[in-house]
Amino acid sequence: MNNSLDYLAYPVIVSNHRQSTAFRKKLDFGHYICHKNRIQIVKPAVDTKPPVAHTHHILKLSKLQGEQKRIDKIEYENKKLCQKIANAHRGPAKVDCWNEYPSKRLLTAEKIQEKALGFLSCLDSHDTSKWLNAQS
């Protein structure tokens, strides 16, 4: 068999006797040598660095502002409590918390009376005698 046909980089059917693979073989060998040289130059390296951390992902300003507002509110309430305690110690002994509870029974009596007055005012606006005469 012909030496030029011994090497075929790509299996093809040779239909013409003038087709030669010598040039193709030369090109492939050149690419192979170039690739081999690049492989020898390359040094193995493993990327052990952590991924890039963006500050807007780590540092949330809205959360910090909310936290600062909460701390300010707590400090304000603590200051008010300290002032109340100081006033209680400074002045004479007295009750500082008066809880006035209105009687529930009194409230229910007032509500019943209001309903009755409202009902009576409705009856006054209508003439009940005409209504009774119309019914009989």
Automatic annotation (TrEMBL):
InterPro entries under this entry?
CFAP97D1/2, Hmw/CFAP97
Q: Which domain of life is it from?
A: Eukaryota
The cross-references to Pfam families, in alphabetical order and at most eight, read: Hmw_CFAP97
One GO BP on record is: sperm axoneme assembly
Q: Which family does the UniProt entry place this protein in?
A: Belongs to the CFAP97 family.
What PANTHER family does the database record attribute to this sequence? MIP11318P, SPERM AXONEMAL MAINTENANCE PROTEIN CFAP97D1
Stated name of the protein: CFAP97 domain containing 1
Tell me what organism the protein belongs to: Rousettus aegyptiacus (Egyptian fruit bat)
